[in-house]
Amino acid sequence: MSDTNATLTLKPKDFKGKVDPDWCPGCGDFGVLSGLQRAVAELGLKPHKILTVSGIGCSSNFPGFFNSYGMHTLHGRSLPHASGAKLSNHEMTVIVTGGDGDGYGIGGNHFTHTARRNLDILYLVMDNQIYGLTTGQISPTSEVGMKTKSTPHGSVELPINPIASAITNGATWVARGYTGNIKQLVSLIKAGIEHKGFALLDVFSPCVTFNKVNTYQFFRPRVQPLEDLDHDASDWKAGIEKAMVWGDEIHTGVFFETNSRLTLEEQEPVLDEGGPLAYRELGLSSEETERIVSRMM
Amino acid sequence: MSGFDYVISIGGAAGQGIATPGNILARLFARRGVHMYAYNAYQSIIRGGHSFLTVRCSDREIRTHGDVIDLIICLNQDTMNRHLEHLGPGTSVIYNSDTIEPGEATEGVQRCAMPVGELAGKGANKLMQNTVAISVACQLIGIEFSALEDVLDFQFSSKGEELVAENVRVAKAAYEHSAANFTPAEQQAPQPSEPLAVWAGNQAFAMAAAGAGVKFYCAYPMSPSTGILHWMAANARELGIMVRQVEDEISVICMTVGAAHAGCRSMCATSGGGFALMTEGVGAAGMMEVPIVVVNVQRAGPSTGVPTKTEQGDLWQVLGASQGDFPKLILAPSSPLDAFQTIPEVFNLADKYQLPAIILSDLLISDETSTIDPKVLDMQPIIDRGELITEAGDEAGNYERYKFTESGISPRALPGIPGYEHVVSTDEHMPDGVLISDEFTHPHKRRAMLEKRQSKMDGLLADLAPPTIVGAADAEVTLVAWGSTAGVIQEAIEQLAAVGVVANHLHFKWLVPFHVDEATELLSSCKRTILIENNYSGLFHRYLRGETGFTVDGHIRKYDGEPFKPHHIVAAVKEQLEGSETLSVPYEKIIV
């Protein structure tokens, strides 16, 4: 592969997709999109070396609004598609984007297993605690008591805790951002991309149309960056403890981080040498063929 | 039929080690150049129950376990009780006389009582009765002891020389006991000739894929498809194949699609239940135009069904896999060798037309162990990836992933190439990959893109070999079938010929797209047609009638979990030719 853009320095606008976002005005996802565009520009990444993968939902339209290779897949299935793609071409920077319903609800099983697999992927979840594209029903992160079209009397189910779940499932970098704090968000995205291993970045990204509870006004006084506290991100217990805090104070920042585990790609001898599998020569040698047949005799 | 054709069955409970004597027999015959076909009737159980392995060997190629049993090895009383009364004159039964009572046998059945404790010595391993039995079987059909010794060495050498020596010692004692006490079988094994290889059906699928350049294989264990995963996992590192076992079949298919989109030739396999979970992913591959190969090894359904039994019940499941209308390739190979030889072509077609290919196997094909001539195992097939862009060219900066073309095939750029950035989407999209809903849901654009995709089917059909009738041109009856029944039908046709019935055979492999014109012409030229399939409601007949408007004259169907035997078909064809019967459902008295 030739790398003709290697010498150019790209700006955030170079990562604008073919069309502008069709999100509602004021949607939190705008901040995440511009945050990612800034982050990748600042990291010096090139569009052809990035693969964005999403499922279905408002925030899953993300790849279309971002200039890179992209896969806009099935509802809840972004992580397995991304995992297959990453193993097929491990030299790509793979960024998975989506929402809380897509990732923690219908895709919950994949969320659990992708975390423990520790592929080198950044999973960027725009968490608005509501189903937006289906016009407002509870999501796996909706709070108890939340009244929606599907829960007119209020939700009685406990919300999932994506941060604590990710830590216990084996994710090696777990953080939370807030779309209203773009400076912190950009630095978290950069750290998440640079982390070697599965990185979850859950971002509060308010739905201005359907979630009238978890609004910018709700989050602004509550968010408390962990950077401002004496938090030891290498301590998973401390990370879980901070993740369980939900009330007048809600933490953002890096809850947990470890570099002590190898990624799946690093543990796979098949990827040791020869570059990405996707670009390798196909077919077997005569020696390989003979060896296989001789074992059958 | 003249020549050597001998069937040995081994019955016992799961956990009694039926697989080992089965493997020993397979190797013995293969190394001697004798053709072998083994069918294992087993239960979904790890210990106990009843398993019944039938090993047929012959001096010609065989693709069914046949109709009769010449020799039974009973590893437990249950096997003896089930089978002794069904044995006819000239057969033998071998059993451990320390633990098993023989019961009443028909006159002319040789009961080979083996005092295993006395032969093996005090404190010998219980599995030694298997070695004793195999040795007696060898002696009865005239296989010299040295050949058995070689295979025992091969079978047990990984477990240490001591175990090999112990087995050889016990085998020798049993061999001598047999020679001194029993009458040899009328049929004696032929002299050794060119050795043959041994494989299982699932291994054929895996080997073919490896030869075709598969670089990514993903699965969730599910009988009877798991053999493919096992072969892939065992060979992954040596052959540079990424093999993953993941959380569920949804993840399996989505990883397969992701890997294929990024550029690897990718395959996954499952059975009907797992395929049910995969269906949305099949549609994703169709919509995003990503080439994948999916194997569905059918077992008796519905739902969990009968996990260890065979059936051709998933046809409509794969025909209707995933919502919407999109191009896909569906085929049903007729044997492990057919699968082996066709799979490279399937990968080429999936790549050329950028679509999902579904291979319908079944337990009968995937689980059978048989000999194969090593000379036909070409693992370096032609690999043609179609219009694949792997480096930057003139279109850099102006590339359209879903460009409109005459053939409907849009050149496919792999992620990683500068200037070819694009998004593939399960939403309907425009040539540049932008969703039509991002503009407004434009009916003309929707129609044009749908027609582009579907037009690929015309080229695909033209690339597939049309069906043909095999056998006598003026046959009084044509046996119509698909998939795994080909072998047993061929043998049934030979048996019919022996009783004066001239039958020929129309077998379908390529199911979607379907050769409507050719099939209609062939069917219309037949004097009489009988459709044979392993299901209750004639699933293939419904499809055939839908595509061609042709209704066959009669049906032979079996849906008890066990495969057809030649005599089932022979009896049913005769019944239909001689009478007014149009549906025959063969009944097998012996319950294995």
Automatic annotation (TrEMBL), chain A:
Signal sequence extent: none
UniProt superkingdom: Archaea
Any GO BP annotation: cellular respiration
Gene3D superfamilies reported for this sequence: 3.40.50.970
Cofactor(s) needed for function: Mg(2+); [4Fe-4S] cluster; thiamine diphosphate
Keyword entries, A-Z: Iron, Iron-sulfur, Magnesium, Metal-binding, Oxidoreductase, Thiamine pyrophosphate
Residue stretches making up the Pyruvate ferredoxin oxidoreductase beta subunit C-terminal domain: 207-271
GO-annotated molecular function: 2-oxoglutarate synthase activity; iron-sulfur cluster binding; metal ion binding; thiamine pyrophosphate binding
UniProt name for this protein: 2-oxoglutarate ferredoxin oxidoreductase subunit beta (KorB)
Source organism (scientific name): uncultured marine group II/III euryarchaeote KM3_178_D06
